[in-house]
From TrEMBL:
PANTHER family: NEUROTRANSMITTER GATED ION CHANNEL
Span of domain Neurotransmitter-gated ion-channel ligand-binding: 19-225
Membrane topology of this protein: Multi-pass membrane protein
Disordered as annotated region, ranges: 345-364
Localization terms from the record: Synaptic cell membrane
A single MF term (Gene Ontology): acetylcholine-gated monoatomic cation-selective channel activity
Domain of life (superkingdom): Eukaryota
Gene3D superfamilies: Neurotransmitter-gated ion-channel ligand-binding domain, Neurotransmitter-gated ion-channel transmembrane domain
Any one GO CC term of the record: postsynaptic membrane
Keywords of this entry: Cell membrane, Disulfide bond, Glycoprotein, Ion channel, Ion transport, Ligand-gated ion channel, Membrane, Receptor, Synapse, Transmembrane, Transmembrane helix, Transport
Organism: Paralvinella palmiformis
Record protein name field: Uncharacterized protein
Pfam (any one): Neur_chan_memb
Length: 503
């Protein structure tokens, strides 16, 4: 019979790698569902820390923070210990985490599936039984977004980590650091990292008297505002300036109201863009939304007042004169306040100056008629009493509308001399003279009608011009009022409030 071969333990150890021998020793009779303590009354202390790699996204609409981080777990497994000298001074071994007992630490405020986000990784096992496990994870945590100061807002997002089933008597979780490790942090283009802190809390839930510890990681971030300044804030400021230009357009242009309505439509588009990215909540109202609403209100009021200014401008001959109080307030005081020089005389001034012939210029029609009358009178040798009275009235009319230039003044003097001093010796007039006087009387009749018509037209034009001047002054005054309101609103909402809120 052949002699049985006895295996040589030395040769078998030489053919098996040290890590494999150590792994076989560690996993022999190892149960991953049992806590790594020999005494059931002892607890397992988990040292927890977080290394932030990158802020992937901040979904304001769904209020979810997406981060890329490493979840650091460290604990002592009493069942795993060896002498490094027996394994060629091997003090650390990497073992797949699924083959070891792992603490059931989860993200309580997880906004995604609890089975996703963790990468299957190895755990580092030391010879004294210490296990370090740091799986890279993509976390989607719920974060209550405060959009009050959008786009100058800062957010504080908390991530709550704790054991799902073990209480403090079985598994205790302790923070390994007071802050998040950002040594490998990659900056985000939209959000900047301000700071972080780590806190440990103990909570007693209504299901029992057990204490459940947890570690909460707070990440403080702020929004980078350059994008929003260039794409939202500056266009809103330009729209405000455009709405002010409605007061600079002349009323005759017919585009004042059109410009205001166009600006209102632009504000509506910006409101829709902001509403799409904001959460549908009534707890907070974004600052930029308040600013746009105020701007729309100011623009709407400016359109209404523009209609009022146009009504003043087109107060034509069917309207009464400008009231005395309005003339005193607008044309006398408000025009000085806005430095608007008056270009017209009021209808009252025109009426007052109508009775001052030396300050009134004749129209060309009056000059021509007076010259015709003068030529006819000079050709008449004998004048009777009744035509003389008519000629004297013509003299008064000619003196009232005489021009200041030398030619018209000379004609008025000749006309006054010839008709003002009739001859004392009257003789019988021929038929030709009588016909001439009849023609002259007819001319004087039509002259009076034309002068009266011209006076009525001047009165109407004076009223129209005075109303237009009132509209110009009111328009200029409203421009400065709305410029002040717009400037103050912009400075307060865009500069001062975000500046004070940051402190």
């Amino acid at each position: 019979m052949p002699t049985p071969t006895i295996p040589d333990n030395r040769s078998s150890k030489a053919n098996i790698p040290d890590e494999q021998r150590l792994l076989n020793k560690i996993l022999r009779n190892y149960d991953t569902s049992v806590r790594p303590v020999f005494n059931s009354t002892s607890n397992v202390v988990i040292y927890f820390g977080l290394t932030l790699i990158q802020i992937m996204d901040m979904d304001e609409k769904n209020q979810v923070l997406v981060t890329n981080c490493w979840l650091e777990h460290s604990w002592l497994d009493e069942r795993i210990k060896w002498n490094p000298s027996e394994y060629n001074n091997l003090s650390v071994i990497r073992i797949p985490a699924k083959k070891l007992w792992l603490p059931d630490i989860v993200l309580y405020n997880n906004a995604d599936d609890f089975t996703t986000g963790y990468m299957t990784s190895n755990a580092m096992v030391h010879s004294d039984g210490t296990i370090f496990w740091s799986p890279p994870s993509r976390l989607r945590s719920s974060c209550k977004v405060d959009i009050t100061f959008f786009p100058f807002d800062r957010q504080v997002c908390a991530m709550k980590f704790g054991s799902w089933t073990y209480d403090q008597a079985q598994v205790d979780i302790v923070k390994s650091r007071d802050e998040v490790d950002i040594s490998s942090y990659v900056t985000n283009g939209e959000w900047g990292l301000i700071g972080s802190r780590v806190e440990r809390n103990e909570v007693v839930y209504p299901i029992g008297d057990e204490v459940y510890p947890d570690v909460r990681v707070y990440i403080v971030i702020h929004r980078r505002i350059l994008y929003y300044i260039l794409n939202i804030i500056l266009p809103c400021v330009w729209l405000n300036l455009l709405s002010l230009l409605a007061f600079c357009l002349p009323p005759d242009a017919g585009e004042k109201i059109t410009l205001g309505i166009t600006v209102l439509l632009s504000y509506s588009v910006f409101n829709l863009l902001i509403a799409e990215s904001m959460p549908p909540t009534s707890e907070f109202v974004p600052l930029i939304g308040i600013y746009l609403t105020l701007s729309m209100a100011v623009t709407s009021i400016s359109v209404i007042l523009t209609v009022f200014v146009l009504k003043l401008h087109f107060c034509g001959p069917h309207q009464m004169r400008v009231p005395h109080w309005m003339s005193w307030l607008v044309l006398k005081h408000m025009s000085r306040l806005v430095r608007c020089r008056r270009g017209f005389r009021s209808s009252r001034e025109r009426t007052k100056q109508r009775h001052q012939p030396k300050n009134r210029n004749n129209s060309s029609l009056t000059d021509d008629a007076a010259e015709v009358c003068l030529r006819l009178v000079n050709e008449t040798h004998v004048i009777r009493q009744s035509p003389v009275a008519e000629l004297r009235s013509a003299k008064q009319l000619g003196s009232r509308y005489a021009t200041s230039n030398s030619n018209n003044l000379r004609q008025r003097e000749l006309f006054t001399t010839d008709v003002g001093s009739p001859s004392a010796s009257a003789v019988e007039m021929s038929a030709v003279d009588v016909k001439r006087l009849a023609v002259m009387e007819e001319i004087l009749k039509y002259l009076k009608i034309m002068v009266a018509k011209q006076d009525d037209e001047d009165e109407v034009n004076s009223v129209v011009e005075e109303w237009r001047e009132v509209a110009v002054v009111v328009d200029r005054f409203l421009f400065w009022v709305f410029l002040t309101i717009t400037s103050v609103t912009t400075l307060v909402m865009i500069v001062f409030i975000p500046l004070f809120a940051s402190y």
